[in-house]
Amino acid sequence: DAARLSASATVRLEVLPAEVYYAKVPSLPVSPLSVPAVLENQTDWLTVANVDARINGGAADAGVAYRLSTSGDKFNVSANTGILTARPRTLDRETASEESAVAIAVNAAEPKYSASVLISLPLTDINDNPPRFQFPGGDCLVLENATVGSVAAAVVAADPDASAGAPNYNLVSDSSAGKFRLQSGSENSVQVLVNAPLDYDTMASVSYHYVLI
């Protein structure tokens, strides 16, 4: 790479005569196999793809057994039909925007030969997570007699869901009787502005609660 760091891998290649290759080795779709995007966090088993291997142009799935290259909790492949399914509630776009699995088809006769295909599954986001405040995490100090219109605090939040858009801020409770107001900031932030003169002697303890809608 650009930093001149390297890695190595050993790939074993076995050359077969044509009559053996076509008669024994399963033929699979071109890898990677792209499939349409699906909504994340499906509540039921979801059919992702049909691997559909053939040997020597024969019927699909005839003389072939299927398995996945690695075991996991997200995908399952039917050993007999090559249908790849995703388990319920395992596809989370906030964790990964795309999931993948490697399906392997093995011929039933001896000697055993196999072929594999990578299936890539894009995930479409749904708005299933609440926004999260990033700042502030505690009290903000404001000087009494601060200029009306000056910024008392800046609040930043973000929504992990790509489809949610920018958060909307609303002042839910205000024990200062309107001495502060909200003004939209930039990049998912909102500013708390001084809206009226502040007198420490009459409002030493003021609490606020902000929520996102």
Automatic annotation (TrEMBL):
One of its GO terms (cellular component) is plasma membrane. One of its GO terms (biological process) is homophilic cell adhesion via plasma membrane adhesion molecules. One of its GO terms (molecular function) is calcium ion binding. Keywords: Calcium, Membrane, Repeat, Transmembrane, Transmembrane helix. It is found in: Membrane. SMART domains: CA. Residues 46-133 form the Cadherin domain. PANTHER family: FAT ATYPICAL CADHERIN-RELATED, PROTOCADHERIN FAT 4. This is CA domain-containing protein. It comes from Macrostomum lignano. The lineage of its organism: Eukaryota, Metazoa, Spiralia, Lophotrochozoa, Platyhelminthes.
